[in-house]
Design goal:
The protein has 164 residues and is α+β, with helices and mostly antiparallel strands. 45% of the residues lie in helices and 17% in strands. Strands 2-3-1-4 form a four-stranded antiparallel sheet. Bound molecules: guanosine-5'-diphosphate. Keywords: Kinase, Nucleotide metabolism, Transferase.
């Protein structure tokens, strides 16, 4: 039987500032993902470090600092989504990290264009609209980081009957 999973999605400051919140949430709901947690939050240095705890190790201080500045430039909308193979499904919906490489039909491909070369030449973060957990283990860590037990919900959705 396919696994029902929960995954953490952040609508990053560029998505919120561009007024894309409703359209992006709609995409997730349209494929039958159930919202089991939702909130708006201004990230601070501590939350950024805990969320991207291995980013500096993976890509260096320059990428970490650019990403930290970008993630704190305005509020984010955090979503906890539940569905069949939700972790991989949401990653498929958002597309690869660099929007310049993301196919049309993915969120990053449809709403952004920034390339790795442009980000590197300008020292800008990759403004790629959304974050989504990369693995089931990461989803568990991030869900607990972003949502307390009383902010995570359980309720029957019609997608279980008709979409999955
Ligand atoms: P994601 O899971 O697709 O978001 O990608 P990663 O976990 O590898 O990286 C996290 C975030 O760091 C990305 O979404 C980007 O905002 C930023 N980032 C990653 N790699 C680079 C890079 O090479 N240059 C810059 N400027 N930002 C990067």
């Amino acid at each position: 039987m396919a696994a029902i999973e929960r995954t953490l999605v952040l609508l990053k400051p560029d998505a919120v500032a561009r007024g894309l919140t409703g359209r992006l949430v709609q995409r997730f709901e349209d494929v039958g993902l159930k919202i089991v947690g939702i909130k708006m939050k201004q990230m601070d240095a501590d939350l950024t470090r805990r969320h991207y705890f291995d980013l500096e190790e993976r890509f260096g201080k320059g990428v970490y600092d650019a990403t930290a500045t970008y993630m704190q430039q305005g509020p984010v909308v955090a979503l906890l989504l539940e569905g069949v193979e939700a972790v991989a499904n949401v990653r498929r919906m958002i597309g690869p990290t660099f929007p310049g490489q993301a196919a049309p039909g993915t969120i990053r491909g449809d709403f952004a264009h920034m390339s790795k070369a442009y980000a590197e030449a300008t020292g800008k973060a990759i403004a790629n609209l959304v974050h989504a957990s990369g693995s089931v283990d990461e989803a568990k860590y991030e869900s607990e980081l972003w949502f307390g037990a009383d902010e995570q919900f359980d309720y029957p959705g019609l997608a279980e009957r008709y979409v999955f």
